[in-house]
Amino acid sequence: MAAPLAIREHTDSYDLTAPQARSDDQLLELWLHGRPAKTQRAYRADIARLRDTLQKPIAQITLADLHVFADSLADHAPSSQARMLASVKSLFTFALRIGYLRLNVAAALRSPKKKNTIGERLMSGGDHSHPRARGCPGRAAQLRAAAHDLRRRAARLRGLRAVLARRAAARRLSGPGGLRQGREDPHRSASTPRPTAGCSASGRRPPAPTSRSS
Fold first, then answer.
1. Cβ atoms within 10 A of the Cβ of 2, count?
2. Predicted TM-score of the model (pTM)
3. Under a CB-based contact definition with an 8 Å cutoff, are residues 81 and 118 in contact?
4. Which of 89, 99, 146, 198 ranks highest by number of CB atoms within 10 Å?
């Protein structure tokens, strides 16, 4: 019974897990394996920028270092900044998953919020920077015309809604049991006929006046 215990105590002092990556370059290749070629080129460029900026191994990069890298991207558009930082966060998550890192410091890195300005450009007419409008002069005019048509239809729907609301209110006032019918003659019942012109309430015509002869 003592031998298995001794073997277990001996093996517990060693890490039997084989290292998945022995260098940053090998980690990068494992991370990019199976991704499309275009995605690999973009990710390689993002990580190369990170390594050139910090000049230190990935395992030694701290959260403060990542803040320095994020500040170095201030000249880029918010969408480009978010993409580069997302690449870094993805690499660090993968490195933690395979045991290359003991702590994912990139998990605490905040990414800039991307502002959606396509709708604003469409409404204001300044949509020349839209990807579909670049290099196509007629495309910008089409987008402006579409935005104008949307605004016109929205105004028409608002007007139609107001008309329908007025008609519904009029039906409530003049319909059976409505306010207008009750205000005309609250004492008249539905079965009481209205007197016609020249007739009394009983329905008989009054006698014609007789003229006296002199």
1. 6
2. 0.49
3. no
4. 89
Answer yes or no: are the C-beta atoms of 95 and 57 closer than 8 Å.
Answer: no
Comparing C-alpha atoms, which of 122, 13, 155 is closest to residue 132?
122
Spatial distance between the Cα atoms of 37 and 88, rounded to a whole number of angstroms:
18
Residues whose CB falls within 8 Å of the CB of residue 111, separated by 6 or more in sequence, listed in order: 81, 82, 85, 86, 89
198 Ramachandran zone, left/alpha/beta (phi>0; psi -120 to 50) = left
Nearest in space to 67 (alpha carbons), one of 88, 83, 48, 46: 88
- Helix, strand, or coil (residue 92): helix
Task: State pLDDT tens for residues 63-120.
Answer: 999 999 999 999 999 989 999 999 999 999 999 999 999 999 999 998 877 665 555 5
Q: Identity (one letter) of the amino acid at 214?
A: S
N-term to C-term CA, the chain: 156
- Do the beta carbons of residue 24 and residue 58 sit within 8 Å? yes
* Distance separating alpha carbons of residues 2 and 193, to the nearest angstrom: 117
